[in-house]
């Protein structure tokens, strides 16, 4: 599967968006539980265990630049699903940020999911970006 990338402009500061992203429990409504393993959240070298509906996955962070960007990835189903992702925050003005979200899934089951449900990753990235936009804009308005 080729990486799926979405870019949205958010009416919030990079700091507000980063604070939201750093609260791992808020990321995805499909996450049933989150357990910090190492690093205390979205820190370079940090990792956490995410319990989804059908499986658990350990997610690792790398190349983290606070309030700017982070790469993360992991695997599930014994390594049969491998994923990599990237968040980037580019300030556009005092209270507007361009948010880039990229996600790629591979591995034997990841490829199979891509064939059977080709929109799964695309829909996930689009919904994730939309959630991050709406929730962080709410947080920014509340902070003003």
Description:
The chain has 144 residues and is of the alpha+beta class. It has a single domain, classed as Alpha-D-Glucose-1,6-Bisphosphate, Chain A, domain 4 (2-Layer Sandwich), CATH 3.30.530.20. It contains 3 helices and 7 strands, in the order βαββββββαα. The chain has helices at residues 14-22, 108-116, 120-143; strands at residues 4-10, 33-38, 47-51, 56-65, 69-76, 81-93, 96-106. It has a 7-stranded antiparallel sheet. α1 crosses α3 (120-143). It starts with a strand and ends with a helix. The mean pLDDT is 89.
Proportion of beta-strand residues: 35-45%
Q: What is the CATH topology assignment? A: Alpha-D-Glucose-1,6-Bisphosphate, Chain A, domain 4
CATH architectural label: 2-Layer Sandwich
Rg computed from alpha carbons, rounded to a whole number of angstroms = 15 Å
Q: How do the strands of the widest beta sheet line up side by side?
A: 1-7-6-5-4-3-2
The best one-word shape is: globular
Q: How many beta-strand segments?
A: 7
Which series of helices and strands comes N to C? EHEEEEEEHH
Structural class: alpha+beta
- CA(first)-CA(last) distance: 41 Å
Question: pLDDT below 50 for ≥5 consecutive residues: which ranges?
Answer: none
Which percent bin holds the helix content? 25-40%
CATH level 1 class label: Alpha Beta
Q: Figure out the total of helices.
A: 3
CATH homologous superfamily heading:
START domain
Q: How many domains would you count in the coordinates?
A: 1
Mean pLDDT: 89
